[in-house]
Amino acid sequence: xxxxxxxxxxxxxxxxxxxxxxxxxxxxxxxxxxxAIVSIMLAKxxxxxxxxxxxxxxxxxxxxxxxx
Length: 68
Fold this sequence. Notes:
The chain is α+β, with helices and mostly antiparallel strands. It has three helices and two strands; from the N terminus they run H-H-E-H-E. The longest helix has 14 residues, at 12-25.
């Protein structure tokens, strides 16, 4: 089943983007975890996310959010 997924990991670009997003959106506390996901996505050129937790990502203007 793992073959069906591409795993993405943080690299320097994602870490730099994480820092930028934290400042840009005033991220604090538990929202840092969602911001880390967004930073990896954006660093890899991914702007769409499918989630049950739309509210967790609604702060990020850079994303297109799809609810399931």
